[in-house]
Amino acid sequence: MDHAIVVAASTGIEDTDLSKYGSIEFGSLPQIKRLVITIQRAGINHFTIITEDTDSPLKDLLEHDKRIESTINWVSIDEDIEFEKVPYLVIQSNLLTTPDALSDFMDQDISKDDVSILADTSDDLWVKTNLENVEEITPEGGKVVGAFLASGELLQQRFSDSKSLMEMIPKMVQEGKARYRKFSGKYWMRLSEDEDTAKVAEELIFNYVGKTATGWISININSKFSLPTSRQLIKTPLTPNMISIGINIIGSLCGFFYAFGHPVLGALFMHIATVLDRCDGEVARVKLMETKKGQWVDTISDQFTVLSFLIGAPLGYYFATNNPLALIMGGVTILIFIFVLVWSFYFLTRYTNSGSLVAYFEVDTLVEPQKTSFIRKIIKIVRPMGRRNVYSMGLLIVAIIGGYPWVVGLTTLAAILFFIHQFEDILKLRRVKPEKQIKN
Questions:
Q1: What is the C-alpha to C-alpha distance for residues 226 and 212, in angstroms, rounded to an integer?
Q2: What secondary structure, in 3-state letters, does 95-132 show?
Q3: Range(s) of the domain holding residue 143
Q4: Long-range contact pairs involving 216-223 (C-beta distance under 8 Å, separation at least 24)
Q5: pLDDT exceeds cutoff 50 at 125
Q6: Which residues of 247-279 are buried (b: 16+ CB within 10 A; e: fewer)?
Q7: 159, 190, 221 — which closes off a domain?
Q8: Residue 70: exposed, middle, or buried by beta-carbon count in 10 A (0-12, 13-18, 19+)?
Q9: Domain identity same for 99 and 239
Q10: How far is CA 75 from CA 4, 37, 48, 82, in A?
């Protein structure tokens, strides 16, 4: 399926005027732009957008945005539409949902005489279903999401004149020609005429973004600080990449404090950068600006904070004690860090379609079918401590309790364990046939 009809005029399934919603802004994006990008990410490349007038102000909202690569045909409500004999996604302009939900909905075959209705059927008093058929639908409320599938032939007969979903869909239901597809996705809502609808929509998106964190600390502690910060950052012209770089400039100050006798302050700056490190991703998801390039910018800029720490901590230990062991441990750790980083970047480019180091642990899907060594079993138990949101908090606690010796000693030990882990990965990946390499 490669065609979508965005109904931004006439009436929606809830008997509302769809011309009112395209320009509503939340999360720093107007609804029409958010909807088109969402549909495009679900796999659609050709759009017909129905508006009230030929010179709709909605056109200006979509111009010059490089994210929108699809072809768009603008049609006023009074113009005729020539539908091709292909299936269409028909979607009303006040729908807020995810690409995954739409992609799942479109992954079905439809009859040229039936319409498919995306419906949230859980505890639904407003949509009566029987097997796969919709038997009754009421306009007063309920869980009809606002997305439909229909053939071009059916739309030419039933939709082209009125361009009203409120007129078309109930008739199809009455005639027994409506099928439903259960909603499967992260979230959905329809914007309403309520004055708080934009606020509710933005809250829904941020709630979803907050749940994308990985790890108990990130979800339950770090997000409590990063989400309020991101709410303010989306109001600025800063891009996610700018935020990534800025956060890690702050983080890189940790090495300065470590080197000049303030390990607690050094650990604190590193932890602040780690907490705020969620902001670039949160802003990107809210503003629909996620890119693979952005992942790489985030990943690479993160390493400057880590490298600053790895240089500053042993230097501070040496300056405080004149113990050459500090420089030896620091040198070993930095060499391992460079090795780990080079190999990890190679793995990401060769075996995954991601620029995030979190994706490195997909290596398990390739090497686990082979015999798992005792060392690997031990490392897998402690591996979650290698996540930055965990070890940055751990380093802060260690700096407070034990100072330089504990910070440098534990860092060197962790680096050695991770080196062993990755060296085993390298050996095992040599036995993996090319067709088994993951490309997700």
A1: 13
A2: EECCHHHHHHHHCCCCCCCCEEEEECCCCCCCEEEECC
A3: 3-190
A4: 217/389, 217/390, 217/393, 218/278, 218/387, 218/389, 221/275, 221/393, 222/274, 222/275, 222/278, 222/389, 223/278
A5: no
A6: bbeebbbbbbbbbeebbebbbbbbbbbbbbbbb
A7: 190
A8: middle
A9: no
A10: 13, 19, 7, 11
Q: How does pLDDT run across 322-343, given as a tens digit for each residue? A: 999 999 999 999 999 999 999 9
Whether residue 356 sits in one domain with residue 263: yes
Determine the Cα–Cα distance for residues 408 and 334; give it in Å rounded to an integer: 12
**Tokens, residue 201:** 């929509």
pLDDT, one tens digit per residue, over 232-256 is 999 999 999 999 999 999 999 999 9
Residue 269: closest CA among 278, 280, 257, 259: 257
> Which CATH number do you get for residue 179?
3.90.550.10
Decide: 344 and 356 in contact? Cβ < 8 Å.
Answer: no
Tokens of residue 427, six digits:
């050996």
In tens, the pLDDT along 59-99 reads: 999 988 999 999 999 999 989 898 999 999 999 999 999 99
Contacts 24+ apart (CB under 8 A), 102-106: 102/38, 102/39, 102/42, 102/147, 102/185, 103/42, 103/43, 104/181, 104/184, 104/185, 105/147, 105/149, 105/181, 105/183, 105/184, 106/1, 106/42, 106/43, 106/149
- pLDDT surpasses 60 at 127: no
Please give the model's pTM, rounded to 2 decimal places: 0.87
CA distance 188 to 399: 45
Tokens 């407070």 -> residue: 400
